[in-house]
Design a protein that fits this description.
Elements lengths: L24 H4 L3 E5 L4 E5 L5 E5 L2 E4 L2 H9 L3 E3 L3
Antiparallel strand pairs: 1-4, 1-5, 2-3
Amino acid sequence: MNKPKSDEQPAAPQSLPAPKVESSPKAVGLPRRFRDTVFTSRTLITPHGESLVVIKGVVTADTSDQYEFLQSHPDLEPAPE
């Protein structure tokens, strides 16, 4: 490890980059609709035990937990508004 010479100033500590702030689902506006690309009718159960019903290939997220669940589901895509 190099030590600064007595006549040199140590390097100023660099500031850390600002943390990235992820937008919350509420920022996109709830409720949000998703299109089921596999089934036209089924019931999805969230990790929190909530039931979400797909009707005519569409399911709606009313809470941020539901939105996160539907957003991460491989068979669903955001429905055009």
